[in-house]
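Components:
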Amino acid sequence: MIEDMDYHPGETPLDADEMAGLKFSHITTRGELNHLEQANIESGLLWLGSQKMPELLTEHFTRKLHKQLFGEVWQWAGSFRQTEKTIGIDPIQISIQLRLLLNDMQYWVDNGTYVPMEAAVRFHHRLVYIHPFPNGNGRHARIMADAVLGILFDEKTIDWSGGYNMQEMNKRRAQYIDALRTADAGDYGLLFEFVGYQ
Ligand SMILES: Nc1ncnc2c1ncn2[C@@H]1O[C@H](COP(=O)(O)OP(=O)(O)O)[C@@H](O)[C@H]1O
Ligand SMILES: [Mg+2]
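Structure:
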């Protein structure tokens, strides 16, 4: 059981079923969990780098990437969330809203609606707003946005962390969460500033 699972603002608590999907029963602290997740993410990133021309903007790829990033730690990795969270839409809407977002993103790529950085930031925000998975949404959606930039646009990826640990509360994470909340209200200014797009 995880003993010190205190949650910071902007983090989604796990319910009992989701906790039950933890593949390592010996874990007792969030620090240990973060470590295991980070190791899994690193192997997931290697997997991503080995993909030739992935069909990024599909539900299949979105879920597959989540599974590659978190599947060694969580049984439910790659499966959509089935419970309501403090962040995110009604779980029965996830599939359709994700499809709309992926279609929009494809349209933005095909038509050059936004410059790549703006498209990636809007995509990132809408993906975390949907919050498809029980956990790992922030990390997954940052990697998805970077994959869009790097693979679909052949552009530099975003320096999300700016040298900070984005899984801990610090001024960088506080700025990020604040920027996402402002974007929830339709104003992307702070989020553009956060990623250095002006
Ligand atoms: N108000 C908000 N609007 C949209 N997204 C948010 C908001 N607050 C937090 N988030 C996103 O949710 C993430 C936390 O969800 P979670 O599934 O726990 O991801 P992770 O485990 O990768 O941190 C944050 O990193 C951020 O990306
Ligand atoms: Mg989390």
